[in-house]
Specification:
- The protein is α+β, with helices and mostly antiparallel strands.
- The chain has 2 domains: about 25-55; about 60-145, Nucleic acid-binding proteins (OB fold (Dihydrolipoamide Acetyltransferase, E2P), Beta Barrel).
- The chain has 2 helices and 5 strands, in the order H-E-E-E-H-E-E.
- The chain has helices spanning about 25-55, 105-110, and strands at about 60-75, 80-85, 95-100, 115-125, 135-145.
- Strands 1-2-3-5-4 form a 5-stranded mixed β-barrel.
- Strand 1 and strand 2 form a beta hairpin.
- The N and C termini lie far apart (about 125 Å).
């Protein structure tokens, strides 16, 4: 015997397909990953480049002369900047500008300001911003010249 069409038993199996289950939004996730890659990859490469140029020196050496200017400068990133007169007493002085990143070295330089000194430096080419210093020459040691 067949059942009437209007009085179907809800527990009885039916031939209708089950309702579709919601699938995770893969397109949204993919776009988020692409956007994160577009932002994070250049930031990571920039950080690696900055770390490389700050830790690798193009050259290093010594400069001697009269230390006559040294100050802490900058609007946001404060750095120690100085100038050394390489040819003291000459009609046209040769001025060499430098940066100090170490506060202990900056304190030593402040103590010998106005004296003849020998500054040991390393040159870092391609530093991407002036937050690390206004010059490419980073002084890391100072020695007073006794005449």
């Amino acid at each position: 015997m067949t059942e009437p069409t209007g009085s179907a038993d809800p527990s009885a199996p039916s031939d209708a397909p089950p309702p579709p289950t919601p699938t995770p939004p893969r397109k949204k996730l993919r776009w988020k990953l692409i956007l994160a890659g577009i932002v994070l990859v250049p930031v990571a490469l920039g950080a690696l480049y900055t770390a490389f140029v700050l830790n690798w020196s193009y050259s290093d050496g010594d400069r001697s002369g009269a230390l006559y200017k040294f100050s802490r400068k900058g609007w946001i990133c404060k750095t120690w900047e100085g100038e050394l007169n390489i040819t003291p007493g000459a009609a046209s002085p040769t001025i060499w500008s430098f940066t100090v990143r170490d506060d202990a070295v900056a304190k030593q330089i402040n103590e010998v300001l106005g004296s003849r000194v020998v500054l040991h430096y390393s040159e870092h080419v391609g530093v991407p911003t002036s937050c690390f210093g206004d010059t490419r020459y980073f002084v890391n040691a100072v020695r007073v010249v006794t005449e």
